[in-house]
Each structure stands twice: as structure tokens, then as C-alpha cells.
Design a protein that fits this description.
The structure holds 2 protein chains of 2 kinds. By secondary structure, chain A is of the alpha/beta class. Chain A is built from 20 helices and 11 strands. Chain A starts with a helix and ends with a helix. Chain B has a two-stranded antiparallel ribbon. The chains are: A alpha/beta, B mainly alpha. Chains A and B meet through α1, α3, α19 and α20 of A and α11 of B.
């Protein structure tokens, strides 16, 4: 291999360097160090570091060291590799789809237990139910919610105006979305109607919850490991089939996975967009035209209306750490969940505040009056009817399942498969992954 | 050839040791570990390992998706190799002409090799992305056809092949320039005198004389395309649309590092290893006969 020598050189270099570092005398520090690995990029990373700094300055016993380990999957993989070497961090940020993997890993110290041991009182009832519910097992919270968001509806007010639509009134139903999109395209105000970010999360996972439809058997996986997906039933086929049909005349325009479709909305190509509520901050800074938000469109009867579900990540505590470190970890997690920090975090990042008291305080300070767009997500999560279908999803191998679903969505939108075929295939492949997970985690 | 004789019996071992140590630690040890992993079902955190024999392999071999990744790999490797090797030969031939500013051209031609695959992927994204790329914007004035590789598999495949070939072009060019310069001027002159045109000279003299290099580069580019092309695909298509650009090494990464299915990932790397070893052996056995060494 041509690059062996350079690799070898950099390895020896790194070894020599780390030996030097190890030999160097370390400053005697009385503070207990808490390692915290996260996946927050850019401004979100700055906000995370700021939060950590605030904690470190608030007391003198503990020093939390925050370290960005890459994307969510990279952070998780790094934590796993470290755990195997008995070098795990105290706290690791894991995205919501990794929840089942973490729950059954046997490598974590559940936060409810940690707080009990450390005799730190936390008013769990004050937490917003749809957020906490996602990470609760048998009534106990296993990981500390950190950054949570939910998909909401964004629209370009300038384009609405140009197309003769009322810029104060976002569409409420999918029928209206179609009607508005056609008007917008016909008037030449924009090239396309709407696009979506995180296709599986917004269009499959959340649409099922929002319409009170089951995503999977066994109460979306909360009741057991013998789960099967239900996304290829009547509702899923109808919704995805409609998107595929709209893709043909630009009412809908697929823009890729994750956030790759963001530019379609930002540069004015698509008049409407469905993405995480956590983008409000970025849009406020980066979008040139007038825009607004609304709740997710709904298909109306016969489907009932429930709440949307969250996305984002939580903080997991790794087990096997000494008691003094665990105490510091608990203190930090408690700090993060306190009202003031929650308010600051929400206002700075656009992620949801996770306690009702933080939301109440924000309301009292007229925050939502001044920033109505920030209220949209809370309204969508807390004002609707919470049902078993909208409390979240708990699936093993969920990362791969999302990948499978998004692959098949691409096949459907490209016209290679019908909605029914594509979703059947996605369900069949996902069911294999679920079976595999169940076999690997026999209890 | 002169045989080097060492006075002490241990000196050669000491001299060879560092290289052997690197090979064992960084190549054989991981390979053995993959082999071991491929026979187990492993929980993500590695706490429980259950021996399941060949189940990881039988599952893979019954999975149509896996065969698609193999087919994708073959298309991808063939595309990259042909493009990168043939392109390099043409460019190298041009860069050995007697022209002004030759040194500058040659240096520039080597540059792409210095760019990390992930970075070149990002560059290609900015040029070709259907939403914010430069090229689709200009193409939209010329043709109504949408080269939307977020939904069109063949466009995505063409794109990652081009991006990967481009990153490897510089390396190949370096070899070809050296090879072309080593062709004795007298031979070419003689052919010239005999009335052979440039095409004939290339076919009858240049091509056979650089064939050992071509052969070496084909093997190397194949292996490169199979193993080290991960960065470009991850940056540009992430294996999509559907699974149109999910080549074997990318599927292995997705299953192992994102899906945390280490057993299947281990089995895939064993198969990949076997495939590449087999391919290289085949090439040496059959292609070598047609190669002229001097």
C-alpha cells in the first residue's frame, strides 16, 4: 500500500507525542474531572461549551470536560470503543434512535438510579411528558433529555404574498398544502411547493404519530422486542403515495436525507418546508425573506389528531465509574435540567426547554409573544392529545431501520417502486433487523 | 546480482522486525479479529458474544441487498480503474511533450492526489449538487433534463466514479510520466524514420513498453476502488439514492459502525478480503502473460 509509510510515520509521531505528554508533569488539581462526549457542531457546540463553562464556574469541586466526538453515530461508536477498553466517558450524548441500544446495553447507569443514590431530588413531574416519555422505561427515566426538537412547518411569507395567499395563514391540512403549492407554482412565485428534511423522521415517524397511527406493533416497541413495522398499512401508503404523486409536478420536491434539503427553502426554490424546530435559530440569522411557522399539516378525518414526536439526543451516564465522579455527573445533569439553564438553552439554540416551569417562565417573560415561532413546537407537543402512538418509538437497530426506510423512500420518489411496494420492502427489511436485534438481546 | 551476506545470524531478523511488526499489528491482527468477529453475534457494547458459526455468512449470501452492493462495487471499481488509468495515460503522454511550462503542468497534474477523498467529495458536492451546485444551474439553461442524483441512481454512480477517479489520477500520472520518459529516444526515432505515425508509434512501441506500469496501476486502482473509496461516497451520496452507490466497503461501514452489527460487518470484511486477494491473484496469473517486462 502506497500510504503505509506516511501512516506509520504519523503513528510513531503520535506515540512519541503522547509519551511526551504522559511524562510531562501534570498540574496538581483537586477537582474531579467529568468526561462529557457530545456531537454538537458549530453554534450548538459553542452553546454546549458555554453551558459546561457555567457549571464549572458555579462550583469548585468538579470540572466537566466537554469534547466533541463527531456526528451522532461517530460519538456513539467512540463511546462504545472506549467502553470496551474500560476508558468510557462519564457522560455521552446519544441520539434518540440509539435509545433502545443504550437501554439494553448493560453499559449504562440509569439517571433515575444515579439521582436516587446521590440523594439529589429532581421533580420528574415537571418535565414535559412527550420528551421524558421517549426515554422512560417502567416509569423511570434512563437518560437525561438534553436537546429535543420536533418537526414543524415553515413557509415563505413573501412567496405567499406574491401568489395571492394570506401570509398570516399557513395551511393546516395536506389538501391545503397541495392547493397552495399549485397556486404558488402557477403564479410563478416559486418553482416548487414544499420539501422536507430528515425524510423518515418527518414524513414517516412523525406523520404516523401526528395522525394517531401505529408505526410498529407492541405499542411502537415500548412493550417488547418482538416488534414489526406497520408503516406499509393504509395510512403510510396513502401519505407516501401522495408525496410520490406530488413529486411529479413539483408540489413536493425531494431534497435528500438529513438537512440537505435546507437550501431549497433558504434560497426560495420551495415555498414551504418541514424540518426540525431547532432550525428556527439558524433561519432567523440566515434567511433573507419573511417567513413563518405553523403546525404540521394534517389529513383530517377519518384520522384523529395526536401530538408529534421528538427528535434529538439525551445524556447517558456510563456505568462503572467511581462514586465521587458519579456525584459530579449527577450534579452536572441536575444543573442542565434547572429552569434557568433550560430557558437559556432554549433561547440560544432553539431546542425545546424540557421542564414545564421553564416554559411557564418563558411565557411570563412574553418570550413566546415576542417569538411566536418558538411556541409552535411546544403547542404541537403539549396541546394535542397524547396517545400510545405519539409517545415515541422504541426500536432496536433503529439507525439502520431509518436508513432502510429512507432508501425505499428514494426508490418510491424516483418512480422505481410504487408506495406500497417500497413500504412493503422497507417493512420486511426492517422486520429482519428487529428480529436480529431481539436475537442478540435475549433477556 | 550480488548476494548480501550478514555476519551475524540475528541482524537480518532485527532489520526486518519493524516492518513485520507493523504488518502484523496493523494488517494481520485486524484481519484475524475480523475473521473471529464474523463467526459471532456480538452485542453493540461487546459484552456478550455468541458463537453462531457461519450464520453471518449464510445470511449475507441470502440477502439480495448484499449482491447489489457486490454488483455496485464491480461497476464502481471498473469505472474508476478505466477512467483513472486511461485518463492518466493520456494526460501523461501530453505532459511529456516538449512544451513551455512543462514543470508547472506536471506539478499541477499531481495535485489532486494530495487532496483527501472526503475533501474532494465536498468539492464535487459544491459543483454538482442539484440544490446548490454550480453545474446543474448552468445545465438548466441548456437542457431540461434534471441530473438529480438525489433520485437518479446512474447519475449518482457516474458522479462518485468521476470524483474517485479524479482523486487518484495524479498518482497514476506520476507513474506514467516516469515510464514514458524511460522509453529510449532512439527507438522512437527509428520508428519515425520507418514512417510510423504517432498512433502507430503509440500502439506498437509506447503501449507495450508501459504495459508493466499499466498492469501495476490496474491492480492498485482496483484495490483502491474496493477499499479506500469510502471517503468520497460518504461525503457525496451516503450510498444513495436507494442503495445505488452502496458499494461493499460502504455497506460494511454502515452495518458495522452505524448499525453496530459487528458480526455481519466482520463477515463482509472477510468476503471483501477474499475477493480482493482472489482478484489480484487472477490478474497476476492471467494478465501477466500479456505484459512485457523489459
Amino acid at each position: 500500500m502506497p500510504r503505509t509509510t506516511t501512516v506509520w510515520r504519523s503513528i510513531t509521531g503520535a506515540v512519541a507525542l503522547s509519551a511526551l505528554v504522559a511524562l510531562a508533569p501534570s498540574p496538581a488539581s483537586a477537582k474531579t474531572e467529568i468526561q462529557f462526549w457530545h456531537a454538537m457542531p458549530g453554534q450548538l457546540g459553542d452553546a454546549t461549551n458555554e453551558l459546561v463553562k457555567q457549571f464549572n464556574e458555579s462550583q469548585s469541586e468538579y470540572e466537566v470536560k466537554a469534547l466533541r466526538k463527531g456526528t451522532y453515530p461517530e460519538t456513539l461508536t467512540a463511546a462504545i470503543a472506549a467502553y470496551r477498553q474500560r476508558q468510557a466517558p462519564n457522560i455521552v450524548q446519544v441520539f434518540e434512535v440509539g435509545t433502545q441500544t443504550m437501554l439494553l446495553s448493560g453499559a449504562v447507569h440509569p439517571v433515575y438510579q444515579l439521582f436516587k443514590e446521590q440523594e439529589i431530588a429532581v421533580d420528574w413531574k415537571d418535565f414535559i411528558a412527550p420528551v421524558v416519555g421517549y426515554y422512560t422505561k417502567d416509569g423511570n427515566l434512563y437518560s437525561m433529555p438534553f436537546n429535543s426538537s420536533t418537526p414543524i412547518f415553515y413557509y415563505n411569507k413573501d412567496v405567499f404574498q406574491k401568489a395571492g395567499l394570506d401570509p398570516a395563514k399557513p395551511p393546516q391540512t395536506w389538501k391545503q398544502v397541495e392547493e397552495y403549492a399549485k397556486k404558488i407554482i402557477a403564479s410563478g412565485a416559486a418553482k416548487c411547493g414544499f420539501s422536507t428534511g430528515w425524510p423518515s423522521w418527518t414524513m414517516v415517524e412523525n406523520m404516523h404519530a401526528w395522525h394517531d397511527q401505529p408505526f410498529a406493533t407492541r405499542r411502537n416497541g415500548f412493550d417488547g422486542l418482538d416488534v414489526q413495522l406497520l408503516i406499509n398499512k393504509e395510512f403510510g401508503v396513502k401519505h407516501i403515495g401522495q408525496l410520490a404523486a406530488w413529486q411529479k409536478d413539483n408540489v413536493y420536491s425531494y431534497g435528500g436525507r438529513a438537512g440537505t434539503a435546507d437550501p431549497k427553502f433558504i434560497n426560495g426554490e420551495c415555498a414551504m418546508y418541514i424540518q426540525s424546530s431547532a432550525l428556527i435559530g439558524g433561519f432567523t440569522r440566515g434567511v433573507k425573506f419573511a417567513w413563518g411557522t405553523g403546525q404540521l399539516p394534517h389529513w383530517g378525518p377519518p384520522y384523529p389528531k395526536a401530538t408529534s414526536i421528538i427528535g434529538g439526543a439525551t445524556l447517558w451516564v456510563m456505568k462503572g465509574k467511581p462514586a465521587n465522579e458519579n456525584r459530579g455527573t449527577a450534579r452536572f445533569l441536575k444543573f442542565v435540567s434547572e429552569t434557568n439553564q433550560q430557558m437559556w438553552w432554549h433561547v440560544t439554540t432553539g431546542y425545546l426547554a424540557i421542564s414545564n416551569s421553564a416554559v411557564k417562565n418563558l411565557e411570563a417573560g412574553y418570550h413566546f409573544k415576542k417569538n411566536p415561532d418558538q411556541w409552535t413546537a411546544f403547542a404541537q407537543l403539549t396541546k394535542g392529545k397524547a396517545t400510545p402512538n405519539s409517545q415515541g418509538l422504541r426500536l432496536g437497530n433503529f439507525v439502520q431501520i431509518r436508513d432502510v426506510i429512507e432508501s425505499e423512500l428514494e426508490n418510491i420518489f424516483a418512480g422505481k417502486k410504487t408506495a406500497k411496494q417500497g413500504l412493503d420492502d422497507a417493512a420486511a427489511k426492517s422486520n429482519d433487523l428487529l428480529k436480529e436485534f431481539a436475537a442478540a438481546n435475549k433477556q | 546480482m550480488q548476494r548480501t551476506v550478514f555476519r551475524s545470524w540475528w541482524l537480518p531478523y532485527v532489520l526486518v522486525f519493524p516492518q513485520m511488526a507493523v504488518t502484523v499489528v496493523f494488517f494481520f491482527w485486524p484481519a484475524l479479529k475480523s475473521l473471529q468477529l464474523s463467526l459471532y453475534r456480538v452485542s453493540p457494547f461487546g459484552d456478550t458474544m455468541t458463537f453462531i458459526g457461519l450464520e453471518n455468512f449464510t445470511k449475507l449470501l441470502a440477502d439480495p441487498e448484499y449482491y447489489r452492493s457486490v454488483a455496485n462495487s464491480l461497476v464502481f471499481a471498473a469505472g474508476v480503474t478505466v477512467l483513472a488509468v486511461a485518463g492518466a495515460l493520456v494526460l501523461a503522454a501530453l505532459a511529456t511533450q516538449k512544451i513551455r511550462g512543462l514543470a508547472a503542468y506536471r506539478t499541477l497534474l499531481l495535485w489532486p492526489y494530495g487532496i483527501a477523498p472526503a475533501v474532494s467529495g465536498i468539492i464535487f458536492l459544491f459543483i454538482f449538487h442539484p440544490t446548490y451546485g454550480v453545474l446543474p444551474y448552468f445545465l438548466s439553461f441548456v437542457t431540461a433534463y434534471e441530473f438529480n442524483w438525489l433520485l437518479k441512481g446512474w447519475v449518482a454512480m457516474t458522479l462518485v466514479i468521476a470524483a474517485t477517479a479524479w482523486t487518484h489520477l495524479g498518482y497514476n500520472i506520476a507513474f506514467y510520466i516516469a515510464g514514458l520518459l524511460a522509453i529510449p529516444g532512439a527507438v522512437m526515432e527509428a520508428a519515425d524514420v520507418d514512417g510510423a505515425g504517432p498512433v502507430r508509434r503509440f500502439r506498437s512501441i509506447v503501449f507495450p513498453l508501459v504495459s508493466p506500469i499499466t498492469f501495476y496501476l490496474v491492480v492498485l486502482n482496483m484495490v483502491f476502488a474496493f477499499f479506500e473509496s469510502f471517503g468520497v461516497i460518504d461525503a457525496v451520496t451516503k450510498g444513495g439514492p436507494g442503495d445505488a452507490t452502496t458499494i461493499m466497503v460502504y455497506k460494511l461501514y454502515k452495518d458495522g459502525f452505524i448499525g453496530l452489527n459487528l458480526g455481519s460487518s466482520g463477515a463482509q470484511s472477510v468476503i471483501l478480503m477474499a475477493l480482493v486477494i482472489g482478484l489480484t491473484m487472477l490478474q497476476f496469473r492471467f494478465a501477466e502473460k500479456k505484459v512485457t517486462y523489459r
